[in-house]
Structures are given as structure tokens and as C-alpha cells.
Amino acid sequence: MDNEITLSFIAKGENEALARMVMSSFIAAIDPTIEELSEFKTVISEAVTNAIVHGYDEDGIGKIDIHAQRLDREIVVSIVDYGRGIRDVKQAREPLFTTKPDEERSGMGFTIMESFSDDVDIYSIPDRGTTVTITKKFVPIQESCRIV
């Protein structure tokens, strides 16, 4: 492991931006492309937003933990909430499925995470919480593409 970080915060919407910023800073050392950085920020945003909105119903009380490890150009991030959990993970992973259709939720969170990651693992226990573990491999930067 090259480096790791753990971040804990209260499940408030305003902390989604904090998580995105901290995790973006964490991967800066591997010099991601703009596209990779954008995709990674989106994945973090989706996972944290899911925890806040679905794990805790935006109660502003629950806690979210993020643990990330970096090994060379691979990042593994686990986003953990201790909220309501997911009763049917398979159904939750289906595009357009949402438990909050009256709140104009698109039901695309897991689909977006999967499209911008190399692997997404979801472990959940109803009424105990959910852990979403995301693995993303960043492509090596070609020396000819570097700005000197």
C-alpha cells in the first residue's frame, strides 16, 4: 500500500462536497487525467449521497466513514453508513430503481458508480447499514502527455 486515509463525518448533504474534495486530494499524487478525476469525484458523490439520502433519510445525525487505500495507480474506497441498509441489493442495482420516486430520484446511482469504476461491491444488512466498496484503476500517464 502506498497510502491510505480514513474520513468520518455526519450524514449531512453539505458534507458530500467535503468527501469529494478530500478524496480528490487523496488521488492527486497519482496525477489522474481530468476525465479520471471527474469520474472519481462522481463516484464518490453518488456513494456518499446514497448513504445520506437512503441510509439515513437525510437526518443529519448518522455517521459516514470513508476508508481509501492507494496501491500504485489503483484506489480502493469503502463508503460505510450505519443506517437502514438495503433490503434487496440486486434490485437496488437495477437502473432506474429508486425507493424515493416522489423525490425525483433517478435510480441511477449504482449504475453510474459501476460505469465509472472497475468494480463495485455492495454489502448491506437491513437496519444495520451498507458498505459500498469501489475499485478504480487509473491509467499510466504517458510521458509525452505530461506538461513540463
UniProtKB/TrEMBL annotation:
GO terms for biological process: asexual sporulation; negative regulation of sporulation resulting in formation of a cellular spore; sporulation resulting in formation of a cellular spore. Keywords: ATP-binding, Kinase, Nucleotide-binding, Serine/threonine-protein kinase, Sporulation, Transferase. Its EC number is 2.7.11.1. One of its GO terms (molecular function) is ATP binding. Gene3D superfamilies: Histidine kinase-like ATPase, C-terminal domain (3.30.565.10). InterPro entries: Anti-sigma-factor_SerPK, Anti-sigma_F, HATPase_C_sf, HATPase_dom. It catalyses: L-seryl-[protein] + ATP = O-phospho-L-seryl-[protein] + ADP + H(+); L-threonyl-[protein] + ATP = O-phospho-L-threonyl-[protein] + ADP + H(+). Residues 35-140 form the Histidine kinase/HSP90-like ATPase domain. It comes from the Bacteria. Belongs to the anti-sigma-factor family. Binds to sigma F and blocks its ability to form an RNA polymerase holoenzyme (E-sigma F). Phosphorylates SpoIIAA on a serine residue. This phosphorylation may enable SpoIIAA to act as an anti-anti-sigma factor that counteracts SpoIIAB and thus releases sigma F from inhibition. This is Anti-sigma F factor. It comes from Psychrobacillus vulpis.
